[in-house]
Amino acid sequence: MQNLAMILFSVILVDNLVLSQFLGICSFIGLTKNLKSSMGMSLAVTFVMVVSAAITWPIYFYILAPLGLQYLDNLVFILVIASTVQIIEAIIHKTAPALYDSMGIFLPLITTNCAILGIMFVNIESSYNFVEALVNGLGAGLGYMLAMFLFTGVRQKIEDANPPKFLQGLPITLIAAGLVSMSFFGFKGLIENLFG
Fold this sequence. Notes:
- This protein is mainly α.
- It is about 75% helix and about 0% strand.
- It contains 9 helices and no strands.
- Helix 3 runs parallel beside helix 6 (about 115-125).
């Protein structure tokens, strides 16, 4: 149980996909202007990560690896992720049309979100068992959600701050993202002391 807790908290805080590994930056920068769309995207990404981890782990370890077809992992993982995203897109479109419209092009882009594909490879490379892979997927999604939530607040403060003209827009956004990212490196010692 301690191992699962370490995996969960490590991927949320220390190895945060967005703030430490810099995966999924496109939606991180594009959808953090308002809280509703950033939380909607975060929930969708978390769901896709967990479902994709649950599907890709047995496919890899029970089909691809025993048959020596590990070189097909990219193709298989992308197909699983794309299928899951299509289901999510249909559900959001039916149940929350306003959220669907606010997410725009970013919803179908979950398919190509490197953070989701990255978690599938972390699960394989770390030789996680099925439960650990699910916990890692859930933690990565929660870490993504935390990053999106924090950065939405930071961006709203930036808009109210009136930075110098040469910093307005993307430059100040990237500087703020770098500062938020640096703050997460302080969690490394915390996790090591809690679970070390």
